[in-house]
Amino acid sequence: MRAFILIPFAVCIYEIVSLILPLKLPLYGRILAYAILLSGLLKGMLYRQTPTGFEIIELPYGGALFISVIFNFIIVAFFMLLVKDAIFIIWKIFSRVKFPGYYTSLFVFSLAACTTLYGTYEGLKLPPVVNHEVKIKNLAPEFENFKIAMLVDIHADELTNESAVQKIVDRTNALNPDLILIPGDFVDGSVKARSKDLAPIKNLKAKFGVLGVTGNHEYYFDYHGWLKEIQNFGVRLLMNEHVIINSGDAKLIIAGIPDITSLMMGFTAPNLEQALKDAPDEPIILMDHRPDAARENAKYKIALQVSGHTHGGQMPGMYQLVKRANKGFIRGWYEIANMKLYVSPGTSQWNGFAFRLFDPSEISLFTLRSE
């Protein structure tokens, strides 16, 4: 947990030296800038590790938003300053003209501030609906034009609060989907603190109900409590199991496995073989929170896997890091053998970095077609 504090602290010191000092502010201006910048360190201090996971110190919406904006600025400015200082080094080597430190720092500060405000807005705004046509082999005529809405990485918290979740629910219900899937990361925080914020999902409506699986964040905060609470909200969690959707004599299989974090935390590990045990020979749609295991999952007769977890990379500079951490999968469509994989950029944001830049969130709407 010290890394949540020590790394941002080191970055803050770097930004004070490379960004604030060259601006030549008066004493009171420098003190204010230092205080605001260092307040972003509170982001790491809000998380406390416990024997069973994490705790979050709860803040009112305004306080959580302020700290998030400052923390976002720290991250954005860091990447920009790396470019600025690389140019400075090259300048010193090849030019005898004095480097315009004041103007370049002022430019970086202004650009980082504007980018931070825009990226925070993008992270918090109501996600649009993105339509996807999916061709499925051996799809029965009864499931032609079958509509599946997918929400993932909702992360109900101080920022994605009850009002925000209700707006997501309203937009999803307006699609009149046949089925709703939620492949994990429902929430961040304890049941006591966050139940009210997640509660609007009980208003989700679909002809064939709402199905989900656990994501990694369900294991960080009172796993057993959330397992019960989420199902009380009307979501059937598939824990290494499948359900059969019947339309007349036709069948469609929806399978789900828990996130791999379950194994690390001592809970039920993901087991796709068990999830598909006794499943009829019909098209299978799999919910797996992470896309990492897609190549292994494709060895089974899966028509479509839907995942989240990556948040699409969130911003340039992080994209490649997140992609590498998820075995090359980041967002959008992939073809793996005979299996289609869709990695959603997520329906909301994660309060640990409530920011999106050129990486919009979405409510996914899949319309099934026969191939």
Q: Would you kindly provide a written description of the structure presented here, covering whatever features stand out?
A:
With 371 residues, the chain is of the alpha/beta class. It is 38% helix and 19% strand. The chain has helices at residues 3-20, 27-39, 42-45, 61-94, 101-124, 162-173, 191-198, 223-232, 261-264, 272-275, 294-297, 319-325, and strands at residues 47-50, 53-56, 129-136, 147-150, 179-182, 210-212, 235-237, 241-247, 250-257, 284-288, 304-307, 332-336, 339-343, 363-370. β4, α6 and β5 form a beta-alpha-beta unit. α1 (3-20) crosses α4. The protein is elongated.
Strand content: 15-25%
CATH topology description of the largest domain: Purple Acid Phosphatase, chain A, domain 2
Major beta sheet, strand line-up: 3-14-4-5-6-7
User: What low-confidence regions span 5 or more consecutive residues with pLDDT below 50?
Assistant: none
Provide the CATH top-level class of the largest domain.
Answer: Alpha Beta
Corresponding CATH superfamily of the largest domain = Metallo-dependent phosphatases
Discrete helix count = 12
Instruction: Give the radius of gyration.
Output: 23 Å
Number of strands: 14
Largest sheet: 6 strands, mixed
Structural class: alpha/beta
Give helix % range. 25-40%
Outline, from the CA principal axes? Answer: elongated
Described by its quaternary structure, the protein is: single chain
CATH architecture of the largest domain: 4-Layer Sandwich
The overall number of domains is 2
Q: Mean pLDDT, rounded to whole units?
A: 94
Distance between the termini: 49 Å
